[in-house]
Amino acid sequence: MNLFLIIESLYALIVIAVVIRIVYDTDDSVKAAAYILLTVMIPVIGMLVYFSVGLNYRKRSIYSKKLLVDKNQSDEIREFIVHYRQRSSAEIENLFPNFYELNLLFPNSPLAFASSKNRAELLINGEKKFPELLKALEAAKHHIHIEYYIYEDDRIGNEIADLLIKKANEGVEVRFIYDDFGSRSIRKTIVPRLIENGVKAYPFYKIAFINFANRINYRNHRKIVIVDAKCCFIGGINISDRYDNSRKNKLYWRDTHLKVTGEAAWSLQNIFFADWNFCSGENLKPTEDYFRIHHKSENPDEMSRVQIVSSGPDSKRPEILYSYLQLIGNAKKNVWITTPYIIPNEELLTAIEMAIRKGVDVRILVPGISDSAIVNAVSKSHYVELLDAGAKIYLYEKGFVHAKTIVCDEEVSFVGTANLDHRSFDLNFEVNAIIYDRRIAEELQKSFLNDLENSSQIDIEEWKSRSGFKQFLEKLLKLIAPLM
Length: 484
What we know:
single chain, 484 residues, alpha/beta, Endonuclease, Chain A, seven-stranded mixed sheet, 18 helices
């Protein structure tokens, strides 16, 4: 009996210590409350979950080296781009007066501004992206920088790997960053073959068994390619056959990517350099070979102003979230969102509600078929709040919609890697492109309307009348939404 009391008292002290640790270490009060609830209500397991995935690495040293790399690199580049930033601000204010504040939102990020001399092209699904990517890689003369969350050992994965090896043998510098969790299928197959044939390849952060949970919690979710400092790719499409619907896969995969030729490559190059120097231990220098001046005269009416915004555990603020809030706050007519996962925090919910109150048409396209039952259920737990606020929600039924896009007022678009959830805002390394281009906005709007033809709109009364068990389960899962 005495032994039982001693064990019980020790456990109570441990719980109190863990709760104090959570309060001290977690900046987000909603997330802190969720971890405390988990720790108190589920003995032992709750604590294991917190120490596995909940530690706040913004306050720790795991990415301190990357932060230093980012700062040193930015200092070297700052003078190189300062006059471009000044010119960019004037152009955006003149051409897009309702949204120019987006371009001013990140004064401490030297390359997070809208560059001018770009030609942007929307790539709908893998069957459009992969041929364009292969063509760009084949044309490379100086360097190829490629960074992906998921890279699979399948047909397209091997086709691209063969091309990277070919270009390396031709003397092109080829650097490849892959997420050690998302691309685990290539660690013992494609990666060794690349290295043996002259391609420099590194995992963003190698997963060790002891630190397994922590390392997979902080994922490099970026999907970017830079070729010769002039052509770049960004968006939601990973390297996998599942994204290519021409292969007659069992599940239709709806996604969106962006190809940009021009100065936007500087911003993606800056992100790649910091990631590369962090994971490789090298000190790759930002020379003119990697940050090429674009002298070609362009017709202003045919140019896309493109702003690259990134965030992750290495950034002091959730800058992608801030860009969403600014965009929604500036909207006058419509905000049309496509996202596979929507688990909004209070700030995002408030921004959406305020936009609707001033007459903005907010439409949100989400999966009817999902690749994650739990995340989809947590997303559904937020639908009533959004519907009550006046948002129109559509379920995509042709297949799985994985695109992460926003189009606003037929003027400005977002295409990138970030979902509308806590993980993308706080845990993952993400990157988005903001495109100030009415042509691209019109194309993305047409694509959205086309997707609605394969979707059904949620009726709020029917949604609220679903079975009590489903609603209870979703509300129960909503308690862990801040941890997703």
